[in-house]
TrEMBL record:
Name listed for the protein in its UniProt record: Sugar ABC transporter permease
Membrane topology classification: Multi-pass membrane protein
Compartment(s) of residence: Cell membrane
Predominant place of localization: membrane
Any one GO cellular component localisation term in the record: plasma membrane
Chain ranges passing through the membrane: 12-36, 70-89, 95-115, 122-140, 160-183, 208-225, 259-280
Segments forming domain ABC transmembrane type-1: 66-277
Keywords: Membrane, Transmembrane, Transmembrane helix, Transport
Any Gene Ontology biological process: transmembrane transport
Family to which the UniProt record says this protein belongs: Belongs to the binding-protein-dependent transport system permease family.
Pfam families, per database record: BPD_transp_1
Domain of life, per lineage: Bacteria
Keyword Iron among UniProt keywords: no
Amino acid sequence: MDKTWNNKAWFMVLPVLLLVAFSALIPLMTVVNYSVQDTFGSNEFFWAGTAWYEEVLESDRFWNSMGRNLLFSAIILGIEIPLGIFIALNMPRKGWGVPVCLVLMALPLLIPWNVVGTIWQVFGRIDIGLLGYTLSALGLDYNYVSDPFDAWVTVIVMDVWHWTSLVVLLCYAGLVSIPDAYYQAAKIDGASRWAIFRYIQLPKMNRVLLIAVLLRFMDSFMIYTEPFVVTGGGPGNTTTFLSIDLVKLAIGEFNLGEAAAMSIVYFLIVLLLSWVFYTVMTSYDAER
């Protein structure tokens, strides 16, 4: 029997698609326009071609910020993904503990990004902050304002505290969707806990892990608010990521052409790396 496909449902989502396309394309084309022009004020623009792109790609400032971004994202993924899996594996599956754990996991995600930065800015101060004061009282020379290593540790711990819950919730959703029959069969076969994780739980979490890795990579690679509030990109430029450098270039130095070119390059890099992540992980999943 031939199936009849009704595509009229697309008309229901067409207004939303048009609205999203309009709100995304107009700002993007504006940035592209700025990236190929130069201005000397008085709202007069002159054609610059690819000069701004060449200046960005030849700039040590850009590549240093890029390196800090890649290092930060690698550390974040290396900590939050395993930690999120571990917490999800140890969360209860039944009883009153389930809603309690879910609410506790969701709490950090409900806090706005600027508030998270403010909390950790105060929390880490050595004069009034609980963390900073405690570490100083223990004899540890901790000061995220002046020490680059302490600044990096503070920003990383802050991000882990804020976003590990997302990985936990995604992994937990994958775990609870596994039928009990799999565990019963493993129990009959005398499978160890590692074997259950390796051959049952991890394969069933592959797709949610793909989502978790993509979301956490994109967010960590584009991070701005939290480190800007806590360290302002300092001390020096040690926590100046691409997003912070871009804002400094556009607003602080009012170099619109170079900032626009950098934002386009930044966007293309995020798009490319996300595509690579997605392609590699989906190919691995297909091979399995």
